[in-house]
Specification:
Layout (H helix, E strand, L loop, with lengths): L2 H21 L4 H18 L8 H20 L19 H19 L3 H12 L4 H8 L3 H22 L4
Protein backbone atom coordinates (compact mmCIF):
# COMPACT_ATOMS: atom_id res chain seq x y z
CA UNK A 1 0.00 0.00 0.00
CA UNK A 2 1.49 3.36 -0.95
CA UNK A 3 1.80 6.24 1.51
CA UNK A 4 -1.13 8.28 0.15
CA UNK A 5 -3.52 5.33 0.35
CA UNK A 6 -2.25 4.47 3.82
CA UNK A 7 -2.81 8.07 4.97
CA UNK A 8 -6.34 8.15 3.53
CA UNK A 9 -7.25 4.86 5.20
CA UNK A 10 -5.72 5.98 8.48
CA UNK A 11 -7.51 9.35 8.44
CA UNK A 12 -10.92 7.88 7.71
CA UNK A 13 -10.52 5.15 10.34
CA UNK A 14 -9.22 7.59 12.95
CA UNK A 15 -12.24 9.84 12.36
CA UNK A 16 -14.49 6.86 13.10
CA UNK A 17 -12.47 6.04 16.23
CA UNK A 18 -12.70 9.67 17.41
CA UNK A 19 -16.47 9.76 16.91
CA UNK A 20 -16.79 6.45 18.75
CA UNK A 21 -14.77 7.75 21.71
CA UNK A 22 -16.85 10.92 21.87
CA UNK A 23 -20.03 8.87 21.72
CA UNK A 24 -18.78 6.93 24.73
CA UNK A 25 -18.67 10.23 26.60
CA UNK A 26 -14.92 10.65 26.62
CA UNK A 27 -14.03 14.37 26.78
CA UNK A 28 -12.79 15.96 23.58
CA UNK A 29 -9.22 16.54 24.75
CA UNK A 30 -8.89 12.97 26.03
CA UNK A 31 -10.37 11.56 22.81
CA UNK A 32 -7.94 13.62 20.74
CA UNK A 33 -5.01 12.41 22.85
CA UNK A 34 -6.12 8.80 22.49
CA UNK A 35 -6.52 9.14 18.71
CA UNK A 36 -3.13 10.80 18.39
CA UNK A 37 -1.44 8.06 20.40
CA UNK A 38 -3.31 5.44 18.36
CA UNK A 39 -2.13 7.00 15.09
CA UNK A 40 1.45 6.95 16.34
CA UNK A 41 1.22 3.28 17.32
CA UNK A 42 -0.45 2.46 14.01
CA UNK A 43 2.46 3.96 12.12
CA UNK A 44 4.90 2.02 14.29
CA UNK A 45 3.18 -1.35 13.95
CA UNK A 46 1.47 -0.99 10.56
CA UNK A 47 3.25 -3.99 9.04
CA UNK A 48 2.00 -6.38 11.74
CA UNK A 49 -1.71 -5.40 11.60
CA UNK A 50 -4.07 -7.46 9.48
CA UNK A 51 -5.75 -5.25 6.91
CA UNK A 52 -9.19 -6.65 7.73
CA UNK A 53 -8.83 -5.74 11.41
CA UNK A 54 -7.48 -2.20 11.23
CA UNK A 55 -10.59 -0.56 12.72
CA UNK A 56 -10.91 -2.98 15.62
CA UNK A 57 -7.18 -2.64 16.30
CA UNK A 58 -7.43 1.16 16.33
CA UNK A 59 -10.45 1.16 18.63
CA UNK A 60 -8.86 -1.31 21.02
CA UNK A 61 -5.59 0.66 21.18
CA UNK A 62 -7.41 3.97 21.73
CA UNK A 63 -9.62 2.52 24.48
CA UNK A 64 -6.65 0.90 26.18
CA UNK A 65 -4.78 4.20 26.07
CA UNK A 66 -7.80 6.01 27.54
CA UNK A 67 -8.23 3.44 30.31
CA UNK A 68 -4.51 3.63 31.10
CA UNK A 69 -4.75 7.41 31.38
CA UNK A 70 -7.80 7.12 33.62
CA UNK A 71 -6.00 4.68 35.90
CA UNK A 72 -3.00 6.97 36.11
CA UNK A 73 -5.23 9.88 37.03
CA UNK A 74 -7.59 7.74 39.18
CA UNK A 75 -10.71 8.84 37.35
CA UNK A 76 -13.30 7.52 34.98
CA UNK A 77 -15.21 10.22 33.14
CA UNK A 78 -18.50 9.45 31.51
CA UNK A 79 -20.21 12.63 30.40
CA UNK A 80 -23.59 11.10 29.78
CA UNK A 81 -25.48 14.36 30.16
CA UNK A 82 -23.57 16.06 27.38
CA UNK A 83 -25.95 16.64 24.47
CA UNK A 84 -28.15 13.74 25.50
CA UNK A 85 -31.13 15.76 26.62
CA UNK A 86 -32.99 16.86 23.52
CA UNK A 87 -35.96 18.86 24.68
CA UNK A 88 -39.17 19.75 22.98
CA UNK A 89 -40.58 23.16 23.86
CA UNK A 90 -44.00 21.60 24.38
CA UNK A 91 -42.73 19.27 27.13
CA UNK A 92 -43.51 20.10 30.71
CA UNK A 93 -40.59 21.36 32.79
CA UNK A 94 -41.25 18.60 35.32
CA UNK A 95 -40.89 15.92 32.65
CA UNK A 96 -37.65 17.48 31.40
CA UNK A 97 -36.26 17.64 34.93
CA UNK A 98 -37.26 14.04 35.72
CA UNK A 99 -35.71 12.75 32.49
CA UNK A 100 -32.49 14.64 33.17
CA UNK A 101 -32.42 13.28 36.74
CA UNK A 102 -32.98 9.71 35.52
CA UNK A 103 -30.14 10.02 33.01
CA UNK A 104 -27.87 11.37 35.74
CA UNK A 105 -28.75 8.43 37.99
CA UNK A 106 -28.10 5.92 35.19
CA UNK A 107 -24.83 7.69 34.40
CA UNK A 108 -23.77 7.49 38.04
CA UNK A 109 -24.62 3.78 38.11
CA UNK A 110 -22.72 3.20 34.86
CA UNK A 111 -19.65 4.97 36.21
CA UNK A 112 -19.51 2.44 39.07
CA UNK A 113 -19.23 -0.50 36.65
CA UNK A 114 -15.93 -1.97 35.53
CA UNK A 115 -14.63 -0.29 32.36
CA UNK A 116 -15.04 -3.55 30.44
CA UNK A 117 -18.74 -3.72 31.35
CA UNK A 118 -19.18 -0.03 30.47
CA UNK A 119 -17.61 -0.62 27.09
CA UNK A 120 -19.83 -3.60 26.33
CA UNK A 121 -22.99 -1.74 27.31
CA UNK A 122 -22.04 1.24 25.17
CA UNK A 123 -21.18 -0.94 22.19
CA UNK A 124 -24.47 -2.81 22.43
CA UNK A 125 -26.94 -0.09 23.40
CA UNK A 126 -25.35 3.23 22.47
CA UNK A 127 -23.67 2.17 19.24
CA UNK A 128 -26.27 -0.46 18.38
CA UNK A 129 -23.79 -3.16 17.44
CA UNK A 130 -24.80 -6.81 17.25
CA UNK A 131 -23.22 -9.52 19.37
CA UNK A 132 -21.23 -10.66 16.32
CA UNK A 133 -19.90 -7.17 15.63
CA UNK A 134 -18.90 -6.69 19.27
CA UNK A 135 -17.20 -10.10 19.27
CA UNK A 136 -15.20 -9.15 16.17
CA UNK A 137 -14.28 -5.77 17.61
CA UNK A 138 -13.15 -7.08 20.98
CA UNK A 139 -11.84 -10.34 19.53
CA UNK A 140 -13.63 -12.59 22.00
CA UNK A 141 -16.16 -15.38 21.42
CA UNK A 142 -19.82 -14.44 21.05
CA UNK A 143 -20.72 -16.57 24.07
CA UNK A 144 -18.31 -14.54 26.18
CA UNK A 145 -19.86 -11.30 24.91
CA UNK A 146 -23.38 -12.50 25.73
CA UNK A 147 -22.34 -13.67 29.19
CA UNK A 148 -20.51 -10.45 30.00
CA UNK A 149 -23.38 -8.31 28.71
CA UNK A 150 -25.79 -10.27 30.90
CA UNK A 151 -23.52 -9.70 33.90
CA UNK A 152 -23.12 -6.02 33.05
CA UNK A 153 -26.89 -5.51 32.81
CA UNK A 154 -27.46 -7.39 36.05
CA UNK A 155 -24.75 -5.43 37.88
CA UNK A 156 -26.04 -2.12 36.48
CA UNK A 157 -29.57 -2.92 37.67
CA UNK A 158 -28.28 -3.83 41.13
CA UNK A 159 -26.24 -0.63 41.44
CA UNK A 160 -29.16 1.47 40.17
CA UNK A 161 -31.60 -0.11 42.62
CA UNK A 162 -29.19 0.29 45.54
CA UNK A 163 -28.65 3.94 44.68
CA UNK A 164 -32.40 4.55 44.56
CA UNK A 165 -33.16 2.41 47.62
CA UNK A 166 -35.38 0.08 45.64
CA UNK A 167 -35.82 -3.61 46.29
Amino acid sequence: MNDITKNNVLNSELNIVYKYLRKLGIPQADAEDAVQETAYKFLLYYDTIKTSKIRSWLIRVSLNFHYDQCCKQQRYDLNLNEDLLETDIKELPEAIFLEKERKREVGDALSKLKPHFQELLFLKYQSGLSYEEIAMLIEKPISSIKTNLFRARKRLAKIYKEANHER
